[in-house]
Design goal:
Length: about 300
């Protein structure tokens, strides 16, 4: 029996665990991946907005987090494949056959990139699908590329690619780009960027590597092909809540609803980080939410003991 089991070892889960340890709680963190860090592994831009710390990328910030994690005494299991969770009973079953029990559960399972679900999307990973313009743009220098999406991340990546690519075509489903004005104004001033609104990418085409994309502009109109060597997809994220969705209250997109103490509608089940924060997903808010959850759990446990 643990005091707290935390699901996920990204910034929210690690911050929760660090605080739980400081508050003397018996804590176990379950991480499904081989490594801790969550989305930090995908952050290739400099991190300049985490108070007091500057890092060249997510891995560099993670190294700082890892030093603190190493000095703490909580248990951390990576490659922990959870098969089922009973939130009311606070019971978690793993693929290894083990069953774990705790007094409180903190869900810090984060988000995953939303997928287009079109032919070629899986096939061309590492062969023309661009993971990050900040990291990979030199590989596509001198080539035409396509960016799918209309939010901040899509437009920011299109701007970075436009520094080195002769043409950048942005394909966006909506009528207007959703990105903040600072980005859209910059985009309008860059002549090599073309924006197709009310358009969808329907296929990624190629042989060994990406050679073209198929785009449909407006429903009903026949798709056409555009020759490109790279495709970057940024169409938002999905909360990792498949395991719990039918046991607690979520919004219509599956993000977990929490109170100001990070508690869900199931007593002693908390959520922290991006999984419960669709409006302000940042490292600072994930770390802060984890600290709040840990402090509240400690207070509840000491009141009950
Ligand atoms: C390209 C990019 C750039 C960014 N730049 C910035 C920036 O400059 N500044 C900033 O503040 N934020 C930035 N962010 C956002 C920031 O990375 C996230 O807000 C932060 O990582 C959220 O932390 P989290 O712990 O809530 O979730 P995540 O980082 O998503 O971690 C969740 C963890 O839970 C694990 N998990 C999921 N399901 C299970 C399960 N069933 N069992 C066990 N483990 C599970 C996952 O494997 C993962 O390790 C950026 C994000 C991206 C993608």
């Amino acid at each position: 029996m643990h005091d707290v089991i935390i699901i996920g070892a990204g910034p929210a889960g690690l911050s929760t665990a660090f605080w739980c340890d400081e508050l003397g709680l018996d804590t176990l963190v379950l991480e499904q991946a081989e490594q801790i860090g969550g989305q930090l592994h995908r952050v290739h831009n400099p991190i300049e907005n985490y108070l007091g710390v500057k890092a060249n990328n997510g891995d560099e910030l993670l190294e700082l987090f890892a030093k603190d994690v190493e000095s703490a005494e909580f248990d951390l299991w990576t490659q922990a494949a959870i098969t089922s969770v009973d939130l009311k009973a606070k019971r978690i079953s793993l693929a290894s056959g083990e069953t774990l029990q705790s007094i409180a559960i903190v869900i810090a399972s984060g988000v995953s990139p939303r997928r287009l679900g079109v032919p070629g999307e899986n096939e061309f990973v590492g062969k023309g699908i661009i993971e990050s313009a900040a990291r990979d743009r030199q590989l596509f220098a001198g080539h035409d590329v396509c960016v799918v999406g209309g939010g901040d991340a899509a437009v920011e990546n299109a701007l970075l690619l436009a520094d080195v690519c002769p043409t950048v075509t942005v394909v966006h489903r909506g009528k207007k780009l959703r990105a903040r004005r600072e980005f859209t104004e910059r985009l309008q001033a860059v002549h090599c960027i073309t924006v197709f609104t009310e358009s969808v990418l329907t296929r990624i085409i190629g042989d060994e590597t990406v050679a073209a994309v198929e785009i449909r502009r407006k429903a009903g109109i026949k798709p056409f092909q555009l020759a490109v060597r790279g495709v970057l997809i940024r169409i938002g994220v999905e909360p990792n809540t498949q395991l719990f969705r039918d046991q607690l209250e979520t919004d219509e997109k599956g993000f977990i609803k929490v109170s100001s103490t990070q508690e869900t509608n199931v007593p002693m089940v908390f959520a922290a980080g991006d999984v419960s924060n669709p409006l302000a997903p940042t490292i600072s808010s994930a770390a802060g939410a984890g600290a709040t959850a840990a402090k509240v759990i400690a207070a509840r446990l000491s009141a009950g003991r």
